[in-house]
Amino acid sequence: MTHGVSFAALPDGRRSTSRVGRQVVADALRGVDPVGARAAEQETAWRSGYLLHFRRLVEAGLATPDAWLAIAGAGLDSVHRNLVVAGDESDDRPLDSLLEAGGTRGLRTAEVTGEGQRQEELVVPYRGRRLHGAGLRDQLLEWARRGVLEPSVVDAVSEVAAHPERLRLDGHTVAVLGAGAEMGPLAPLLGWGATVAAVDLPRPAVWERVLRAGRAGAGRLLVPVAEGAGDPRDDVGRAAGADLLAEVPEVADWLAGLDGRLVVGNYLYADGATHVRVSVAADVLGARVSRARPETALAFLATPTDVFVVPRDAVEQSTRAYVDRSGTAKLVGRPLRWASRGRLLHRAYPPAADPGIADSLVPVQGPNYALAKRVQRWRAAVARGDGRAVSLHVAPSTRTRSVVKNRALAAAFAGAHRFGVEIFEPETSNILMAALLVHDLTADVPPHEHPWQDEAHAAVHGGLWRAAYEPRSALGLAAVLGYGSARG
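^ thats the sequence. predicted structure below, dont judge the formating
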């Protein structure tokens, strides 16, 4: 039975994700691009046709910062109208009722103090090495040279490495939604001595991992446990956790009562439509906590498999890579493009594009994944526009369990290096992205002229923005070439 944050029910009781997806995209576009809005509304094959409309959301906002923010604001408004709080027997309530609703149970805090030695230096594990100091900077520069990440990453991470005292995030309490996620910053932050409030489902197996990280670290791990559950010190893992889909008020009130400057970080992931639901639940949670604690900062990781605006120098590097590709690549590419009617191995950008549009949407991930991640980008843009502190960075494609269980993606990851794209291991990604979070919370990061530049700043896209080929035109071949390795 559906419970908590969910899609609105149709008269026949169905909760159609495609209907909501079409409606949200159309509503987002309507004020800026009415033709695009109508096209989204009339899309009859949403599960395959959504790619064009999600690209249009970015293209339509490129004209002016106001257009970008208008799309983001209208999209969020539509999300809040088209999702609901589902009750028994289709007794749905408006989503925004969660902003004022009382909880059905209280949560109190169990604290776990780390027993490990604090990591006093930024160290990034990479291919069997532990990079720090000059070695870390050399690798950052090498990644930038190869187009694996944006040059602004080098400066941001180097600044954190030069000021390791910032790693503790003194005075902050970072709420990690999805504390058990592989891409989350839980373990790095605790290792650096930070205070982390962990939020995840009440599943003992999840909390066993989270508590293990808390004890191994050198920080403070704050855990929500049910009031009246007995002494949580007896067995924290069995008393811990909350279901954010159904318990936004409970989690929000718990977070609002914690000490320190709050940072609400969304690192949640779920399969299919549930990903949209948890992303929206986190959005409402962030809004409710921000009302109670106006100084609250927001944090997100953007997926590289989306549509982004990229700077001119990324277009230039991609163009050079296309022009300078090997003779074999040119020889093989021509018949492939002809046989596929231009769908395979075509260049990523028009040579004169300034800025460019990096379209890295992956059809196999589907429209629900795209919508869940776009909600986060919209919230980041609107919050920045309102003057709120926000940390959002594109994180690299990473071999997490949730990704490589998809055989097609696992094969494409295994063959991606042949097309200039680097796939990261989780232990590298989460420390690198945690360091960028620390930078955003402790350094003076001025806003950019246009919101797309905020998204492009310090992006770790793995090479998708600067490789020779448009990613979707190479994805199938990467999967074919990587199939054997993925099976192994």
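The chain has a mean pLDDT of 93.
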